[in-house]
């Protein structure tokens, strides 16, 4: 999100500089020029910043919602795993695979997926 914010700021700054440059070059603009007559550059920048702030707040809230639901699903899956016997390889593997999708860096979930994959393979081969 920080990189996205920096890009937006750079674009807005570029727009501001271009508009500001045009205003300096055209001090004698006509009153029919709606951009210059209805709104100053500073007003436009303030409006754009307000819009950007609103969008960023929406993005932040959405990201927080996604993070919260991910944490809730993680807790739910872990609670379900406590109720499943170790001998139910397929059910355990499926739940650990979902956890690993949500947390790809988690070494324990990787080990559990590998463990249950091996157990299923052994079961299918008749061991």
What would your notes on this structure say?
The chain is built from 5 helices and no strands. The radius of gyration is 28 Å and the shape is rod-shaped. The two termini are 50 Å apart.
What keywords describe this structure?
127 residues; 2 domains; 5 helices; mainly alpha
* SSE string, helices as H and strands as E: HHHHH
Structural class: mainly alpha
* Largest sheet properties: none
Q: What is the number of E strands?
A: 0
CA gyration radius, whole angstroms? 28 Å
Question: Short description, anyone?
Answer:
The protein has 127 residues and is mainly α.
Describe the secondary structure blueprint for this structure.
Elements: H1 2-25, H2 34-38, H3 41-83, H4 89-102, H5 107-125
Helix pairs in contact: 1-3, 3-4, 4-5
């Amino acid at each position: 999100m920080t990189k996205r914010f920096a890009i937006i700021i750079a674009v807005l700054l570029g727009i501001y500089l271009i508009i500001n440059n045009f205003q300096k070059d055209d001090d004698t603009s006509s009153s029919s020029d709606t951009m210059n007559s209805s709104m100053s550059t500073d007003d436009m920048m303030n409006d754009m910043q307000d819009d950007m702030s609103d969008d960023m707040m929406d993005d932040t809230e959405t990201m927080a919602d996604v993070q919260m639901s991910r944490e809730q699903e993680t807790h739910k899956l872990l609670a379900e795993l406590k109720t499943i016997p170790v001998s139910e390889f397929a059910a355990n593997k499926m739940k650990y695979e979902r956890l690993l999708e949500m947390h790809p860096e988690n070494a324990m979930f990787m080990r559990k997926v590998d463990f249950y994959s091996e157990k299923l393979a052994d079961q299918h081969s008749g061991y």
